[in-house]
Write a structure and sequence with these properties.
By secondary structure, this protein is α/β, with parallel strands linked by helices. The protein contains 13 helices and 14 strands. It binds ligand FO1. Ligand FO1 binds next to helix 2 and helix 6. The site of ligand FO1 has 18 residues, from helix 2 and helix 6.
């Protein structure tokens, strides 16, 4: 599964209930990563680990349940950067990751250690161990890091362009291309096409490998009824000149995905999706409803490819 953050984590939760976790490889976006307070923070990797470990804050969808914020309160007291909410327990993850990176370990190696500590059996890997950062240019022409846009500005500024700094020099992490080449099937999680899936595809070799497996690739639309359930995916699609609909997602993914799972509310878009050359699969996709994540996962595994 190609993964962003919250939507991907929820679907993975269903998938590990539907198949042996050890047979799942999560290839995760690192474009949201950030260096702050001298720490390397990997939000999408952490959201997936915390969610699968049943440690994630349910109401936030990121960070840990039962968090305290003493450290950030102290930082704020000194006038330091306290705009990005790092809980006291979450900070432990960033402290460990940063120290391991400084010892020369790769992000993939560290992620495996962290996943192992939480007894997760699926393979979780960053798409690359190299530096890749999603940069967002907003209407006034200034360029922001992803988190400055998403959190700093609560993503309520319009975006004129996006780029993935470092992508051209980035190499797929060990096993990433192999997983894409050999997987029985590949799922594109219901993550933000512009800032969660595209930064994965921007790593040289990934889009090509995926395109060669197009008939085995099933994407799940993050847009339902023209809206994203969480985050700015719908607005970003429009701001970047795409149609914020399941059809727009089908067009965005048609190069490498043969199927697109869309929500029942979009059933009337099925024929338009077919004309884009993608097979629409209509079902319940809102995983906030109990059991949908599991039934969606069962469907994804049962689709003939
Ligand atoms: N999202 C927010 O909206 N506000 C925050 O203060 C915030 C802090 C944060 C800390 C650690 C972490 O792993 C994720 C965090 N997120 C926060 C979510 C983060 O912005 C993710 O990149 C988004 O969820 C998009 O995937």
């Amino acid at each position: 599964m190609l993964c962003g953050g919250v939507g991907a984590a929820r679907l993975l939760k269903g998938l590990v209930a539907s198949m042996p976790a050890a047979d799942i490889t999560a290839i995760v976006n690192v474009g949201d990563d950030m260096n702050l307070h001298g720490l390397h923070i990997s939000p999408d990797l952490d959201t997936i680990v915390y969610t699968l470990a049943d440690q994630v804050s349910v109401d936030r969808g990121w960070g840990l349940e039962g968090e305290t914020w003493q450290a950030m309160e102290m930082v704020g007291r000194y006038g330091g950067e306290d705009w990005f909410g790092l809980g006291d327990r979450d900070l432990g993850t960033h402290l460990f990751r940063t120290n391991e990176l400084a010892q020369g370990k790769t992000l993939a190696e560290i992620t495996q250690v962290i996943a192992g500590v939480w007894d997760l059996e699926l393979q979780i890997s960053p798409v690359t161990n190299d530096r890749l950062r999603t940069m967002v240019t907003i209407a006034d022409g200034s360029e922001l890091s992803f988190q400055q846009y998403f959190v700093g500005h609560s993503h309520d500024v319009s975006v004129t362009s996006i780029r993935f700094d470092g992508a051209t020099a980035a190499r797929p992490a060990p096993g990433v291309l192999e997983a894409i080449r050999t997987a029985d099937r590949i799922v594109v999680a219901p993550s933000n096409p512009a800032v969660s899936i595209d930064p994965i595809l921007a790593v040289p070799g990934v889009l090509e490998a995926l395109s060669l497996r197009r008939s085995s690739v099933i994407a799940v639309s993050p847009i339902i009824g023209g809206k994203a359930l969480k985050g700015p995916a719908d607005r970003l699609m429009t701001e970047l000149g795409h149609e914020a609909s399941a059809v727009g997602v089908a067009r965005w993914y048609s190069r490498f995905a043969a199927k697109l799972v869309i929500d029942s509310v979009d059933h009337q878009l099925a024929s338009a999706i077919e004309t884009v050359g993608v097979d629409p699969i209509v079902t319940e996709t809102i995983m906030a409803k109990p059991g949908v994540s599991k039934s969606l996962s069962d469907l994804l595994l049962s689709l003939p490819i």
